[in-house]
């Protein structure tokens, strides 16, 4: 059994520049920081701002369910009502097919399909599939959120590409969450950043969270880094984030945040949609969010031994030490993770080192296994 601080220190010893780790069980919060915000820079602190990458997804999922509760959209609605670009898309004969090997759409894409990542829009589990390359090259998927074009242009391009599967007949990753964000913005006639702030961030007191870095946050923002052989190099400085804000607010992976802000979000989820007297979701919506609503084909590279709820994965097997039946949350490519465990434990792990190897994934796995152990002890 290792302490959280020992795990953070071990990560830095293995080349991770800096870490913020947090485990919360009710009012008992264990925090550890280690390393620096950038090579040669200031130490990591609890209030360090990071790119959350795909840890954004559960937050977008919560926003979408809140908009459903308001009656603006309904899960059965056809997505083309707000996204006409999707009305006549084609579908690949199988997920790894060539882009021109398609069949007609068997049924319309619905809001529900987007909520559960079953629309067919997204990354398939086969990394060699032509569709994967097309999403990376044409839609800026799989990389920095700032590589995506502005929303209308992204939807135009999405409409020119085939789906990976018929709506409702499979599960695809990432791009569909970006498309869901555009749908929410169009349906509410509001920019997604403003909508998110109004519905979730402001009521929950998440004042350090947003799609673009503020000038007052630069000094405490960690630099994005990657491994270069035995070295770690900066690929995205804090100043670059300020100077080059994204033109596309990515609901799939574009939020910046801090550990305390993320803790507030996950405490809301743990409490059934309410925090400090502010209710942003109904208990029923939170149950939906955390339910295993979709599954991927066996061996899918993104969703192994897990199902998908709304914006995050749900553990349905315990094949790894970090699994716990009913655990809900997700990880991000910048070395980030946030999960709610079945007995109420919240685990948050924030670095800014891109996942580059199984060893990097193993570092996160060790931490999440310790969170799972602590949660099981509460049973």
UniProtKB/TrEMBL annotation:
Any matching Pfam family: Beta-lactamase
Chain segments annotated as transmembrane: none
Coiled-coil ranges per UniProt: none
SUPFAM superfamilies linked to this entry: beta-lactamase/transpeptidase-like
Beta-lactamase-related domain span: 5-348
Domain of life (superkingdom): Bacteria
Name of the protein: CubicO group peptidase, beta-lactamase class C family
Annotated organism of origin: Agrococcus jejuensis
């Amino acid at each position: 059994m290792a302490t959280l601080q020992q795990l953070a220190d071990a990560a830095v010893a293995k080349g991770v520049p800096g870490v913020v780790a947090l485990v919360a069980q009710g009012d008992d919060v264990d925090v550890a920081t280690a390393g620096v915000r950038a090579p040669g820079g200031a130490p990591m602190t609890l209030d360090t701002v990071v790119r959350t990458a795909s840890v954004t997804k559960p937050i977008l999922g919560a926003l979408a369910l809140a908009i459903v509760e308001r009656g603006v959209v309904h899960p059965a609605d056809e997505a083309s009502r707000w996204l006409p670009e999707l009305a006549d898309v084609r579908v690949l004969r199988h997920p790894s097919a060539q882009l021109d090997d398609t069949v007609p759409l068997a049924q319309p894409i619905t809001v529900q399909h987007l909520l559960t990542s079953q629309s067919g829009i997204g990354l398939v589990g086969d990394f060699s599939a032509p569709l994967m390359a097309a999403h990376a090259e044409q839609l800026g998927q799989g990389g920095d959120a700032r590589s995506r074009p502005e929303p209308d242009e992204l939807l135009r391009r999405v409409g020119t590409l085939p789906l990976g599967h018929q709506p409702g007949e499979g599960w695809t990753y990432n791009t569909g969450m970006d498309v869901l964000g555009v749908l929410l913005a169009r349906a509410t006639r509001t920019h997604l950043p403003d909508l998110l702030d109004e519905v979730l961030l402001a009521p929950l007191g998440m004042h350090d969270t947003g799609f673009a870095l503020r000038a007052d946050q630069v000094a405490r923002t960690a630099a994005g880094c990657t491994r270069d052989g035995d070295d770690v190099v900066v690929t995205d400085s804090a100043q670059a984030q300020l100077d080059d804000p994204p033109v596309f607010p990515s609901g799939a992976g574009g939020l910046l945040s801090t550990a305390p802000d993320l803790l507030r979000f996950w405490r809301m989820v743990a409490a059934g949609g309410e925090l400090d007297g502010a209710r942003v979701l109904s208990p029923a919506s939170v149950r939906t969010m955390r339910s295993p609503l979709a599954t991927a084909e066996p061996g899918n590279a993104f969703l192994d031994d897990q199902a998908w709820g709304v914006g995050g994965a749900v553990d349905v097997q315990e094949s790894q030490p970090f699994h716990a039946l009913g655990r809900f949350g997700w990880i991000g490519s910048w070395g980030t993770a946030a999960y709610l465990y079945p007995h109420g434990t919240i685990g948050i792990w924030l670095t800014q080192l891109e996942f580059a190897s199984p060893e990097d994934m193993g570092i996160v796995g060790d931490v999440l296994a310790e969170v799972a152990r602590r949660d099981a002890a509460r049973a």
